[in-house]
Amino acid sequence: MPSTAPPFKPLPSGEIVYGDLALTSTSARQKSSWLSNLALVAVGIALICNWNRNTQSYDPLLALVGFSIISYVVTLVLIPLLGPEFVRIGFHGRDLGKKDRPLIPETMGAVCALVYLVTMFFFIPFLFYKYIVTDTSGGGNREQGIDIGSTLLHTGQPMRMFPHSKLAEYLAALLSSFSMLVLGVADDLFDIRWRNKLFMPAIAVLPLIFVYYVDFGVTRVVVPKFVYQLVSPNTAELPVTIDLGVLYYLYMLALAIFLPNSINILAGINGLEAGQAFVIAIFLLINDALYVLPSRLFDVSHPATEAHLLSMYFILPLVAVTFALLRFNWFPASVFVGDTYCYFAGMVLAQVGILGHFAKTLMLFLIPQVFNFIYSAPQLFHLIPCPRHRLPKFNIETGLREPSRVAFPEPPKKLQTVMLKLLASVKLIDIEVDSKSGTVVSASNMTLINLVLTWTGPLREDRLAYVILGIQAGTCIAGLLARHTILPMIFGRDNL
Ligand code: UD1
Ligand code: MG
């Protein structure tokens, strides 16, 4: 994790002194960071202008790496500049995991989302420029379309530029991300009730789903060969697919609702919201590279290559802006990411799963989020009371985080008691029982973070974040290995 201290810090008094920024601005560290930022921008520009005279072509992926480097620097510069402004208009929160509960800027995910979207706008001409050249008679009408993709721009570089049909999907994805940004900011402003905000991503994803319906419309999925052989034992051809029809659209909707919300509820310690999105995005990039690199190095292309290249195009800038955000949100955080970031990042990840047609692979990378959601369900659906905040408790004496608890002022009902005692017996929660009456007085809140703490004992906030992100990375590695070893056996092929 980055070790450079953020350029401004909240004071223990609980207020932010932005003069801190002015004081450090002339320091050697600040100068060197300006120099390194300038150097990074220069590298970014060089990569964007990667015109190859010999082949008379350029590489959009390299250009996007350049854009992403610049978007990283821009986010790094904008967050400390805009932080005080955000606080001034009320986007702030108290860090409940620190002694003096300092007040720091919130909703910084909005800065990331904006930089991300602008990057993706600038990238449009690099990805789609003159794939189809049109002749006009001068009156503005398109008389003729000449596909030069296969003759000039694609010479010697298959799968780099996209046909214009992809532009619709690309723009629809950006529209969905933008809608998510607006709804996320609304949530940070109005602190919308959980049961209402749960469905906000369903609204944001509509442009993508409708464009998918009119433009792409693939609703077939590969099924495990043994399932298909049960239904149709004589089938010789593998892999086999079934058409899910409208169910496929419901599946996409469910993915778009699940991802942003699951990132948002695996939260409450510095660096975790942005950290988990960062780790998932890195593993998606690794998976994409397994398809894209062979096609580039050995000039062999595969039907899935284009989808994974598109996925890379969406994820690279997300990794860049998230890394910049993490530098400020990592322990001790000087900004919060806000629900805006969780929704936005979750939406981008859901989009690549949908457009790349690899939602099942994506789910393999989301095992901690799926676990946290199922584990949280009794509280989310109010079978067990759910306090406003379930983040781990800060022990003022030790400075460590401990599991937070939900208290039962009234004795829990029979069903609740059975559920609590059952979970406690398999060490999934920690309960406090009244020795006289035997009734449950309190229980640890049902989140993955609290569960880890009940198993490990109290931890410092950054160590706890490392443990959870370690679990995230570990499950992603397992998911990646399973995706390319066990699953191909079950499904009849690996589409590498
Ligand atoms: C979700 C969780 C909630 C958790 C909260 C923490 C559910 C149903 N909701 O709610 O239990 O407490 O996220 O983000 O599981 N904060 C910190 N340190 C951090 C991050 C956040 O103290 O590192 C506090 C700050 O006061 C911040 C607030 O959490 O202002 C943000 O909470 P918010 O994101 O609005 O909570 P929810 O997403 O609704
Ligand atoms: Mg939140």
Written overview of the protein:
This protein has 2 domains: 8-136 and 162-365 and 464-491, no CATH class; 393-459, no CATH class. It contains 20 helices and 11 strands. It has helices at residues 19-24, 28-48, 60-88, 109-128, 149-153, 165-190, 194-197, 200-204, 206-216, 225-231, 246-265, 272-297, 305-329, 338-355, 359-364, 367-380, 414-425, 448-456, 461-484, 486-491, and strands spanning 92-94, 103-105, 132-136, 142-147, 220-223, 240-243, 393-394, 401-402, 405-407, 431-433, 440-444. The strands form 5 sheets. Strands 9-11-10 form a 3-stranded antiparallel β-sheet. A two-stranded antiparallel sheet has the order 1-2. Helix 6 (165-190) packs antiparallel against helix 9 (206-216), helix 12 (272-297) runs parallel beside helix 14 and helix 12 packs parallel to helix 19. The structure holds uridine-diphosphate-N-acetylglucosamine and magnesium ion. Residues 264, 267, 339, 342 line the site of magnesium ion.
Summary of the model, kept short:
By secondary structure, the protein is mostly helical. The chain contains 20 helices and 11 strands. The protein starts with 18 loop residues before the first helix and ends in a 5-residue tail after the last helix.
